[in-house]
Amino acid sequence: MNIKEIKELVKMLDGTDITEFSMENEGSKVVIKKGISGQMPVIPQMGSYQYPVITQLPASSPTTPQETSSVEDKSEGLGPNQVLIVAPMVGTFYRSSSPEAEPYAQINQMVEAGQVVCIIEAMKLMNEIESEWKGKIVEILVDNAHPVEYGQPLMVLEKV
């Protein structure tokens, strides 16, 4: 089973009441577990895909952006059409699929809604992070191959 099939399976299970799903196929086993309210979330053994969390906060008066990792602090310097692409999970941030490959997104590059802009590696799984809107990458806030935390701003996108 390849990663695309696993992602489709996770999407199909995402609006259901199913809390655990297990499947064996051609020598591989996939187990997907969803957390139950009031309990610690269960980390899936393989195949969990999460969508990016993109936050748009109201812009305040123009200030000098500070080097900080919180969404609130970084959002203060955003323009009216700018949004933050934030990490949906803890992991390692990568701008490309391999060290030799071109980055998914670069500063001043136009991206489409649904286009992959980076990868976060978590538990040896590569999770593609997609843009929710069409726009231009204004700033990349994290260095390649550096750890990121849940909710940490990764990029600033100016919607068009």
Describe the structure.
- The chain is mainly β and 160 residues long.
- It folds into two domains: 47 residues, no CATH class; 107 residues, OB fold (Dihydrolipoamide Acetyltransferase, E2P) (Beta Barrel).
- Helices cover 10% and strands 34% of the residues.
- The strands form three sheets. The chain has a five-stranded antiparallel beta sheet with strand order 3-4-11-9-6. The chain has a four-stranded antiparallel beta sheet with strand order 8-7-5-10, with no helix packed on it. The chain has a two-stranded antiparallel ribbon with strand order 1-2.
The CATH homologous superfamily of the largest domain corresponds to RNA polymerase II/Efflux pump adaptor protein, barrel-sandwich hybrid domain
Q: What is the domain total for the residues? A: 2
Q: Percent of residues in helical segments? A: 10-25%
Strand content: 25-35%
The total count of strands amounts to: 11
The N- and C-terminal alpha carbons lie at a distance of 37 Å
Highest CATH level, the class of the largest domain: Mainly Beta
| C-alpha-based Rg, rounded | 17 Å
Instruction: Figure out the total of helices.
Output: 2
Give the integer mean of the pLDDT values: 78
CATH level-two architecture of the largest domain: Beta Barrel
CATH topology of the largest domain, by name, is OB fold (Dihydrolipoamide Acetyltransferase, E2P)
Largest sheet: 5 strands, antiparallel
**pLDDT under 50 segments (min length 5)?**
42-49, 60-69
- Write out the strand line-up for the largest beta sheet, numbering strands in chain order: 3-4-11-9-6
Give me the secondary-structure category.
mainly beta
In N-to-C order, the SSE pattern is: HEEEHEEEEEEEE
Shape: globular
